[in-house]
Amino acid sequence: MNTTIWSLAGIGAVALVTFLLGYVGSRKANTTPDFLVARRSVPATRNAAAISGEYLSAASFLGVAGLVLKDGIDALWYPIGFTAGYLALLLFVAAPLRRSGAYTLPDFAEARLGSTNLRHFCTFFVVCIGVLYLVPQLQSAGLTLTTITGLPSWIGALAVTVIVVVNVLGGGMRAITLVQAFQYWGKLFAIAAPTFVLFVVFLASPSQGTQPIDDNGVMRFPKSEVVEIKESVRLRVTEPMTLRAEGTVDGAPANGSVYWREGRYEIGPNTKLSFTAGSPVPVVDGAPPNNDSWMRPQVGGIWNLFETYSLIFATFLGTMGLPHVLVRFYTNPDGKAARRTALHVLYLLGLFYLFPTVLGVLSRLYLPRLLVNGKTDAAVLMLPEAMVPNLGGQILGAIIAAGAFAAFLSTSSGLVVSVAGVVSTDIMPGKVRDFRWATVFTGMVAIGLALLLPRSDASLTVAMSFALAASTFCPLLVLGIWWRGLTWVGAVCGMIIGGGAVITAYALSVVSSYTGHWAPGVFTQPALITVPIAFLTMIVVSKATRRRRPQDVNQILLRLHAPDPLGFIKDRDIARFGTAEEKARLAESKPRGSTRSL
Amino acid sequence: MSRHDAGAPEPAARDEWLGESARKPRRRRVVLADTTKSRGKAMRTLIELEEQTSVGEKLVRDLIKQQLRSAFGLAGMVLLGLCFLPFLFFAFPQIADIKLLGIHLPWLVLGLAPFPILYAVGWVFRRQAERHERDFVNMVDR
């Protein structure tokens, strides 16, 4: 119970500081007559911290360590890809995109190719990617609150949705650089400090409380343990064992001692499994069953290799197409500063991603029970208490919980703002009221899907939205910026085929997860196939529709690439083309000064 | 600008954003950021750029080609390097047995090494891109 109080206090502190900074920041922005000029004087380092703060989501904070715990070394490709994505962004789009003066992706597409049809397609995919990215944030929020307080997971997801929507509506959580920058440093501290402490604890007494491994690399429970399974899982048993089960196993009610031989077992929801000390640890189906295969890279055969390549492609090329990333780049003064910011983001992300790996490895030693109930995303949250079962552990746990909460809040707010901004300007008339409705609508769709879709690991679902971004917006951006020959017909065709393939693959893998896991890994990681298809379609169709090339393509490319001192940069009219959030701010700053509900 | 007319963007707005030259070829005064140098020649080059005469177009094409070459070269290098690692581990599983400072080599290679390398590549690109732009400005500004 003590842990709950500490963690809730930590979460409360994060929420409070966020509110306060947002309040101060938005008041300051309101008193500045030209709000945009104030924003463009943000130094590159702080801007980079803000971008990182928004980018480091639940998938990074909880998901990476969870995947390392479950999948072992192959999961390290996630942090590598999440970071490398910013390199691709720096190389191909950062400076030209900033110079284009576009605020959102649909904006860019319309400016470059001059087609409102294309704009509508872009809007559709921005909403898809945004919602797909929001769902794991909300699901992880539910998981976090369940882990801390034991409440059912829908309460946590609902709570975060409500907080984010209310914040965005009230204006307390606007995309203000200071808040996001603070959240980056907060998150870094929340993961770095516990990592240092726990690592020292581990070095001081390496064998205390850890699970012993026998000569065959089979993991065993160090002491007798009761594992409660809330959502149904499929377990893989590699060594015969006896245990007590209360609940449903393989569809039949079980109550008492059972004997499991090698094979796969379907465990129903609300089942209690009691393991004796020294009994082998059964693992969730699909994870490496013993430590030896966990330790070694690429032991899963050719399909595993394919999935790794697919993941590298999706994350490397997908980052540039995420809706909440581009908006933040607009706060840079010019193209050169955009490049510097992207470079600094590489440094900040690289620094952060050193820590989840260490936590994941440690939790493999201390928390084998998470492999049984499949909630590996909770590893980071539970590790401090498992390693240091006293007040110190509780405080560390509270710090981590607060950091995780900061991660949900910042990423979800950024996503809701950018999706609602696009929805309200492109689908609705684009007034302040429409922005508010769009926010509520986005929140409702996201929470609905979060409760409806099966919860898989945060990083996996996030990787899916990266795949979607890489197969739609990446070719549009790269070809649009570097190739004169792109036409809007080609862009639309490429996005439909690339994006359609990813959405189909995702739908099939969701169906398969309900009907017996028949879909191969290609369906959860389709980027290696869909990205080249999308690029190819765009190029071929553009060549076929050559006469639809915009007449002014030369001027546009000049504007995108001409060095900043020549003065070709021209920002689009803010009142017309700004995101609704910015419009709301502009509109509000005129009639009233500081009265603002938080 | 009233906030009620902010619906779907009309073509006129786009033309406005693109500048006058997109609609009709008309001379337009462009002010350089640097006002101290003599501006006669530079102005002519700038106007050539803006109006996309054959000279201006050639200049911009060259700049884009240069930048693209840098970006593609570095991106290709990184992507090849990253994609080579899984294959290496797949083809030679014995690499996993090598230990460095008590940690298995692949964990070091994947957990630590990529981040400084990615930063270094980004740094090199930033330098190259800024040099290309400086050269371009110098050429225009001669």
Automatic annotation (TrEMBL), chain A:
UniProt-listed Gene3D superfamilies: Sodium/glucose cotransporter (1.20.1730.10)
Membrane topology: Multi-pass membrane protein
Gene Ontology terms, MF aspect: acetate transmembrane transporter activity; symporter activity
Transmembrane segments: 6-26, 47-69, 75-97, 118-135, 155-176, 188-205, 309-330, 342-367, 395-423, 435-454, 460-482, 489-511, 523-541
InterPro entries cross-referenced by the UniProt entry: Na/Glc_symporter_sf (IPR038377), Na/solute_symporter (IPR001734), Sodium:Solute_Symporter (IPR050277)
This protein's UniProt keywords: Cell membrane, Membrane, Symport, Transmembrane, Transmembrane helix, Transport
Protein localization: Cell membrane
Domain of life of the native organism: Bacteria
Stretch forming the signal peptide: none
A GO cellular component entry from the record: plasma membrane
Gene Ontology biological-process annotations: plasma membrane acetate transport
Family: Belongs to the sodium:solute symporter (SSF) (TC 2.A.21) family.
Protein name: Cation acetate symporter
